[in-house]
Every structure is written in C-alpha cells, then in structure tokens.
Specification:
The protein is of the alpha+beta class and 495 residues long. The chain has 2 domains: 139 residues, OB fold (Dihydrolipoamide Acetyltransferase, E2P), CATH 2.40.50.140; 256 residues, 2-Layer Sandwich (BirA Bifunctional Protein, domain 2). The protein contains 15 helices and 19 strands. The strands form 4 sheets. The chain has an 8-stranded mixed β-sheet with strand order 7-11-12-19-18-17-16-15, with helices on both faces. Strands 1-2-3-5-4 form a 5-stranded mixed barrel. Helix 7 packs across helix 9 and helix 11 runs parallel beside helix 12. The radius of gyration is 29 Å and the shape is elongated.
C-alpha cells in the first residue's frame, strides 16, 4: 500500500478560456473517434463522498470498496501515480490512481482528464500518511466531459455579476454559496414540518389571477389568449387562502412564489417566496405565539442555534420571549413630540425636514408617519420585536382595534433591522371589508375583488393570519448580505 502524501492541486492550464475550450473540444473528438462515450448515461454510485468517508474509522488504515462519482476539482498528474479530488452534493473525497493498478492504457487516458470533468471511481478506502481518507482506484470512467474550465482556477468567484448570472459556476467553486442554499432548503423543510405538526393543511392557490389583491403592490400583467383577457401574476396569497377559511379549512398555509412589478434592491426582488398561514378561531395574539415558535423551531432544527452572529454588533438572540412595542409609542419617541398624531400635514412635513428626513409632500399624514417609521425606526430593531397596532390606513384587511379606531390589530415582526413577518386579526365583516376596499379603489395598486367579498358574505370564522418573507428570513439566518445571495436565480437585466 502506498503511503505517498497527496500533492496540492495544480492549475488547470496556463491557457486562457478560449484556448482551453479548443483543446478540450479536440480531446472530445478523439475520445469519440476511439469509441469511448464521453457523456455516459449512468454510473453505479454506491456511496456519496460523506458516506464513503464515514466507512473508515480513525483506528483503521483500510476500509471497504466504494463507488463514488463527481466533478474533478483538484488533479495532480504524475508519471506512475496521480491524485485527484472530486466533489459531489455532500462534499469532497480524494482518490489515488496508479498505473500498475488500472493498466497502462487506462492510465494514459486518465492523464488526459481535465479539471471540471465528471468521473466515477471505484476501489477500496485507505488512509494516507497525512491521515486523509482516500480511494485506491481499481476502476475509473469519464462520465461527462467538461468543455470549459472551472472559473478562477478553483479559487472561487468574486465578481457578483458573474455569480448571479452564472449561478452554476458559483455553486461549483464557492462553498459558502452551496451551504447557504442547502440551509435555505432545510429552513423551508422545517417550516413545512412545523405547520404539519400543528395540523395545518398545505394548499396551492393560483399564480395567475383575474383580480390582483391582498397587498398594495403593482402586478405583472399578461394576456391570456385562450380567454382573450388579461390576468395578473399574484402579488399575495391572502385572499384565496381566506376563501378556504370560508370553505371550512380552518388551518391552511402555503409556501409560494409572489410577483411584484417594483424595484430591485439589496432587499427586494420582483419574484420572491412567501409563507402565508391562516388559523380560524384565533387572532393576531395567537399569530404572535405561532410566529415566534415557528422561527425558533426552524432556527434550532435547521441551523442548530438560536444565536445569530452578525458582522456588526451583538448577535441576534432568538431565545426567550420577544419584545413588543406599539407603533405609536415608537413614533412619538422618534419624533420627540407627544402631539404628533394631532399635527396638521404642514407641521408634520416641517418636523420631518428638521429631522433630516426626505418626505414626498404629496403623501398623506399616515404615509408621512410610516416614512418616519421606515427611515428612522425600523433599521434600529435588531433584536426580535413585535411592532403592534399600526395605522388602519396601512392595511384594509385587518380588524380595527376596539379601544382605538385609528389602529388595527396587527403586528409587524422586525428582526435585524427589517420587517419579515406581518400578522393580523383578519377582518371578517363583509360590510367593513367592502368599505375599506372602496376607500382604496382607483389607486394604481388596488383592485376590488368582488368574489372575495361575496365569499365573506357566506361567513368567515374569526381568524389570525401571518405572512413571512422566506428570502428575508434566510438572509438573517444565514448571514447573507443581499437578497440575491439567497435566491438561486435572481432577476437581472438581460445581458
């Protein structure tokens, strides 16, 4: 048994990308001329990399035979023996290839492989002098030829534009990206597990809708040729899910894509993923318990911790009970003026000007107030905070607060300086709901959904509802700096 120490990975080639493409294409043609199939249909893979590595305990030098497959990411070719590393969905594993083990002809072909090629390797496990578990190859096969080289010679991608446009390359070379998207998958899986355990029914509602409702947002519109009419991509899940409450499904949730024809930023993508959940016979307080329990359980099970480290400042502590704060109290503290909500519009504008806040003078009073919240307060709410009782004008779908008709029974959960989950005591009075809708009819972002109002007239039980932006949740749970880092294929300007 060889105890040679594996060398460090060598560069793929000194040639540039176009030259390498030509060289690899020539290799491909020669392979085909020799009767070899450079794009095989399968390989008998017995283990993943991590499964294979687990088969050789520390007290043993030799292990069983395994068959693995993956992409070559490190390759050192030598005269009579070579090392390579392959990567699969679970990680990397090393292989040791000897001429006297596989034969002279096979070894000659092996030396023609390139970084990026997919191969299958079969052989027993052993441990090198440095302690690295390695496969002693008895057999190998090229299963898919890579015609283009790996970026940055396996040192990773640093150009954000290339990362987002060619995500497949980012996933090949950037371990952090792979880990983040694996974490995203675990987070969504745990979200589903949480609701299934609470006897919620997972449902699917239409993405194409004849009436766009459930949020104040501009939709994407398209023409449906078969019916010769326009439809919109949904901007929210809410109104169809509440129809299901009317129908007798008293606990429902959906994880689905939502589309809003608005801006691009570090926090916004026009296509994103929402969770919405509705439970009959509860209210926003019930949603508060549900939301806190959900995020705590997801963080604990998907990531193994309730302490979310931050690059700047203290960690976010998800444990224990979370803070509550009334919207009005936060506003009054921020502006330092107890009569803020009684001020005329002109005085509000003067005050915001003195605070250095740029406000559109065409905004209404409640919109000016919300500008103060978004520009002065929201970014300071790092630790989990339920901001409750927001102005009723901001949401027509919630119950009006009994002892303050200027607010609604709502909370907005803010974590890491941004809102990630609003929740309501849902409005189920069809007359109050119609009146609230009618006040917003004619605004560009609002449409009157008569069918939803008809459903309410058949009776909807009291209910609490919650929406959570999956992408924003993933941002702070994985310490991502940009929403595009949490979306596999973010929206970009066509190149």
């Amino acid at each position: 048994m060889s105890q040679e120490q594996p060398p460090t990975p060598a560069p793929d080639s000194s040639l540039d990308g176009s030259d390498q493409f030509a060289v690899r294409q020539s290799k491909l043609e020669r392979l085909r001329e020799s009767g070899s199939d450079p794009f095989r249909s399968n390989w008998d893979q017995s283990h993943t990399s991590s499964e294979a590595l687990s088969l050789l305990p520390e007290d043993l030098e030799e292990g069983p035979e395994v068959s693995v497959a993956g992409r070559i990411v490190a390759l050192r070719l030598m005269g009579k023996a070579s090392f390579l590393k392959i990567i699969d969905r679970e990680g990397k594993i090393q292989s040791y290839v000897r001429k006297d083990e596989i034969g002279e002809d096979e070894y000659a072909d092996f030396k023609k492989l390139d970084l990026g090629d997919f191969i299958g390797v079969r052989g027993p496990l052993f441990r090198t002098k440095t302690g690295e578990i390695t496969i002693r190859a008895k057999e190998y096969r090229l299963v898919s030829k890579a015609l283009r080289p790996l970026p940055e010679k396996w040192h990773g991608l640093t150009d954000n534009e290339q990362i987002y446009r060619q995500r497949y390359l980012d996933l090949i070379v950037n371990e952090d990206s792979r880990d983040r998207f694996k974490a995203r998958s675990r987070i969504i899986r745990e979200i589903r597990e949480f609701f299934w355990a609470r006897d919620f029914l997972e449902v699917e509602t239409p993405m194409l809708q004849s009436v766009s409702g459930g949020a104040a947002a501009r939709p994407f519109r398209t023409h449906f040729n078969a019916l010769d009419c326009d439809f919109s991509m949904r901007i929210a899940l809410e109104l169809h899910l509440k129809r299901l409450l009317v129908g007798g499904f008293d606990r429902v949730f959906e994880v689905g894509r939502v589309f809003r024809n608005e801006g691009l930023s570090r926090r916004h993508n026009p296509e994103f993923t929402m969770l919405e959940a509705y439970q009959a016979y509860t209210d926003y307080r019930g949603m508060m318990e549900l939301t806190q329990s959900l995020i705590q359980q997801v963080a604990e099970r998907a990531l193994g911790t309730l302490q979310m480290e931050r690059a700047e400042g203290d960690a976010i502590d998800l444990s224990g009970d979370w803070k509550e704060a009334k919207y009005k109290d936060l506003i009054l503290e921020a502006v330092g003026q107890d009569d803020w909500f009684e001020l005329p519009k002109a005085a509000m504008l003067e005050k915001t000007k003195s605070m250095g806040i740029e406000v559109d003078p065409e905004l209404e009073e409640f919109e000016i107030t919300n500008d103060v919240f978004e520009k002065v307060i929201e970014h300071t709410l790092i630790q989990p905070t339920f901001v409750t009782h927001i102005p009723r004008e901001l949401c027509p779908l919630a119950k009006i607060t009994q002892d303050d008709e200027s607010t609604i029974d709502v909370f907005e959960l803010c974590i890491n300086g941004q809102e990630i989950a609003p929740a309501y005591s849902e409005q189920n009075d069809p007359f109050v709901q119609r009146e609230a809708f009618m006040k917003q009819v004619g605004e560009e972002t609002q449409e009157l959904d008569d069918d939803f109002l008809l459903a309410l007239e058949h009776g909807m039980p009291p209910a609490g509802g919650m929406g959570l932006g999956i992408d924003r949740l993933v941002i702070f749970l994985t310490k991502a700096s940009n929403i595009r880092d949490t979306i596999l294929f973010p929206t970009l300007r066509p190149s």
